[in-house]
Design goal:
The complex is a heterodimer of chains A (116) and B (114).
Chain A: E1 4-7, E2 10-14, E3 19-25, E4 33-38, E5 45-50, E6 56-59, E7 62-67, E8 72-77, E9 86-95, E10 102-106, E11 110-115
Parallel strand pairs in A: 2-11
Antiparallel strand pairs in A: 1-3, 3-8, 4-5, 4-9, 6-7, 7-8, 9-10, 9-11
Chain B: E1 4-7, E2 10-13, E3 19-25, E4 31-37, E5 43-50, E6 53-57, E7 64-70, E8 73-78, E9 87-94, E10 104-105, E11 109-113
Parallel strand pairs in B: 2-11
Antiparallel strand pairs in B: 1-3, 3-8, 4-5, 4-9, 5-6, 7-8, 9-10, 9-11
Classes of the chains: A mainly beta (116), B mainly beta (114).
Chain lengths: 116, 114
């Protein structure tokens, strides 16, 4: 059961274009939605994150749009650059059992290639 | 200084062997994880430890045994290696008490079983 569905699986964009990756979730207990960026040979690294009480968050060329009623969120990369070529993962976080532990549910990833 | 470090970075071994991967974090985090990433890049959590206590144990064969000697270290021992164990294994850490679940990953250990 894939609790966080991510699409597309792969994406090719021209330099300067807009890259858009979409995710959908089912569990309304999720309260934190991060995006991770992974370059070849490296571990994933947090790129940007949003909470469900806001509809948009922007950091430089990266923007998360969040639609709570539709249970969907998306990553937009403006003015995409070849250096943005990487695998992008969306995720959703919720509290896990009692205490301060949290569980992160991952999307399957999107391989982005930005052509020069 | 590397925040989350794993050793070895590459591991090539024969089926049936036993191997270990070590992980150390210097971020002062209480929670550490092991993830497996297969050839399709899918990230699957295997274990989570909070302050040396096992919190999450996903459906992982009992050939995999994590050990946390202290909250800065989480090692992974794998017995009787199988071809399907070939993958990249990532260690990660996060601060507990935080309300996000942001993870900090190591660079991964690529295990190849022949």
């Amino acid at each position: 059961q894939q609790q966080v569905k991510q699409s597309p699986q792969s994406l090719i964009v021209q330099k300067g274009g807009i890259s858009i990756i979409n995710c959908a979730y089912e569990n309304t207990a999720f309260d934190y939605f991060p995006w991770y960026q992974q370059f070849p040979g490296k571990g994933p690294a947090l790129l940007i994150a949003i909470r469900p009480d806001v509809s948009e968050k922007k950091e430089g060329r990266f923007t998360i749009s969040f639609n709570k009623s539709a249970k969907q969120f998306s990553l937009h990369i403006m003015d995409s650059q070849p250096g943005d070529s990487a695998t992008y993962f969306c995720a959703a976080s919720r509290q896990y059992n009692a205490g301060n532990n949290r569980k992160l549910i991952w999307g399957l990833g999107t391989s982005l290639a930005v052509n020069p | 200084d590397t925040a989350v470090s794993q050793t070895p970075k590459y591991l090539v071994t024969q089926m049936g062997n036993d191997k270990s991967i070590k992980c150390e974090q210097n971020l002062g985090h209480d929670t550490m994880y092991w993830y497996k990433q297969d050839s399709k890049k899918f990230l699957k959590i295997m274990f989570s430890y909070n302050n040396k206590e096992l919190i999450i144990n996903e459906t992982v064969p009992n050939r995999f045994s994590p050990k946390s000697p202290d909250k800065a270290h989480l090692n992974l021992h794998i017995n009787s290696l199988e071809l399907g164990d070939s993958a990249v294994y990532f260690c990660a850490s996060s601060p507990s008490g935080g309300n996000t679940g942001e993870l900090f990953f190591g660079e991964g250990s690529r295990l190849t079983v022949l």
